[in-house]
Amino acid sequence: MKSALLAFAITLALAGCATTTSPTGRKQMVGGISQAQLDQLGEQAFAQAKAQTPQSGNAQETGYVRCVVDSITRQLPAGYQGRWDVALFQKDEPNAFALPGGNVGVYTGIFKVARNQDQLAAVLAHEIGHVISRHHEERITRQLESQTIVGLAGAVIGSRYGANAGNAVSQYGAAGAQALFLLPNSRAQETEADVVGQQLMARAGYDPRQAVNLWQNMIAASQSRPPEFLSTHPDPQSRLNELSQRAGSLMPVFEQAQASGLRPRCG
Predict the structure, then answer these.
(1) How many CB atoms lie within 10 A of CB 84?
(2) Could you give the CA distance from residue 104 to residue 96 in angstroms, rounded to a whole number?
(3) What span, in angstroms and rounded, lies between the C-alpha atoms of 98 and 190?
(4) Residues facing 99 on adjacent strands
(5) Which pLDDT value is given to residue 203?
(6) Is 26 helix (H, G, I), strand (E, B) or coil?
(7) Which one from 137, 190, 192, 194 is the annotated catalytic residue?
(8) Regarding predicted confidence, which is higher, 5 or 21?
(9) Which one, of 123, 78, 88, 130, lies nearest residue 215 by Cα?
(10) How far apart are CA 29 and CA 99, in angstroms?
(11) Is 194 a known active-site residue?
(12) How many CA atoms lie within 13 A of 38 on its CB side?
């Protein structure tokens, strides 16, 4: 009876979720949060980043980043176009991010590895690719799903075998969900953002081969990385191989974009 109740409760908890298809054809679980709520969370997170991290006073570098972002976002689907908010943060870490609601944050340390406009476009197109692939919504939905299942299972086990057993299920179940369910999903998202981002940069008139050079620079700058099975990023060498293979097939897209007048001159 308790198992049946657990199954019924899980079904009710996940009733608002839906399965859709990502830009690369991967099945996604979404619907745990509305687009309006997602955009609001993105705006709040961006405002918090601005409040906590100093922004660069270098107008030339900020304009450079803005130029690359604008050239990429002009190639987005209609629902994602428009002026995106851009902030260049004074931070030595080579990193960048994009958030729902149309927000892009870049750390000044990115210029150590993104050494030309095409490599910077590879970074930013990858991050924007996460947004248009609905990865933030997918992550939130997956986490809500995982928390619901683990919490309900812990409650049922606790009612039958006692509070200690229930707490153990909740504790170890959450750890298992993180290692076996949530993190592998993140690696799938990173790979997908590579695909979407490289396509996007080529359509915007940036050389897709420069994505390979960018990640070579990233790897060279990295001191260490966690084991792949606990990482949210694909294996570096596998990533380079896939980027290189895909760059060749995207050269006609890049050349057509350039021929049509898409020749970014950002920096």
Answers:
(1) 21
(2) 7
(3) 13
(4) 103
(5) 98
(6) coil
(7) 194
(8) 21
(9) 123
(10) 19
(11) yes
(12) 21
Q: For 67-94, what is the mean pLDDT?
A: 94
How many of the other CB atoms lie within 10 Å of CB of 197?
Answer: 26
- Count H helices and E strands in the chain, helices first: 9, 5
pTM, two decimals, is 0.79
- Over residues 4-15, the mean pLDDT reads 44
- What pLDDT does 106 receive? 98
Euclidean distance between the first and the last CA atom of the chain, given in angstroms as a whole number: 66
Which tokens hold the place of 155?
A: 């409650």
Confirm if 96 and 110 have CB atoms less than 8 A apart: yes
Measured CA to CA, the distance from residue 86 to residue 41 in angstroms comes to: 16
Both tokens of 184, joined, read 């592998």
Question: What is the DSSP secondary-structure string of 116-185?
Answer: SHHHHHHHHHHHHHHHHTTHHHHHHHHHHHHHHHHHHHHHHHHHHH-HHHHHHHHHHHHHHHIIIIIHHH
Task: Report yes or no: 87 and 106 within 8 Å, Cβ to Cβ.
Answer: yes
Q: Which residue has the higher pLDDT, 235 or 122?
A: 122
- Residue 157's pLDDT band, with cuts at 50, 70 and 90, is very low
Going by C-alpha positions, the residue among 121, 116, 204 that lies closest to residue 106 is: 121
In tens, the pLDDT along 192-205 reads 999 999 999 999 99
Give the tokens for residue 239: 């990533």
pLDDT score at 32: 76
Give me the catalytic one of 127, 137, 145, 207: 127
- CA angle, residues 181, 183, 189, in degrees to nearest 5: 105
Q: What is the pLDDT of residues 172-191, one digit of tens each?
A: 444 444 444 445 457 888 99
> Which residues, listed in sequence order, are joined to residue 85 by a DSSP beta bridge?
103
Q: Is 92 a catalytic residue?
A: no
- Residues linked to residue 18 through DSSP beta bridges, in sequence order: 30
